[in-house]
Amino acid sequence: MERRGITTFMIQNTAEKSSPPNVGLGTVLLRGCRLRCPRCGQGRMFAGYFRMRPACEACGLNFQPEAGYYLGSIYVNYGLTALLLTAGYFALMFGTNLSDTGRVVVVGTFCVLFPLWFFRYARSLWRGLDHYFDPPAK
Questions:
Q1: Structure confidence by residue, pLDDT tens digits, 113-126
Q2: Which of 43, 112, 124, 134 lies in the 20 to 30 Å Cα band around 94?
Q3: What pTM does this model have?
Q4: 56, part of any domain
């Protein structure tokens, strides 16, 4: 239990390291798509498929600043899923001879699998966009 407190203290102290110069939005988005730290681009954000690292191992940027921080990533995930779903449904409806049942199966499968796959990318992009538009105080 005590070790956990020390680790948290160390993560908070390393987050105060000097940050590199500001980077452009394209760089931040590319780092988000690569699931890398938005500040340095070196550290990986995820230790497993759904488990995030507490901080960047390279620069110390805190990946979990507060409870509820990643709520916005759910909107990113949902929005992209809905957009792709709508476009895909109309493409299936007008571009193929698939039955109604077939379309529902394809669309339903997409609705389950795509958000699970995109979960990490939505979080990574959300952290990157937040770092770009609201950088931590120096």
A1: 999 999 999 999 99
A2: 112
A3: 0.78
A4: yes
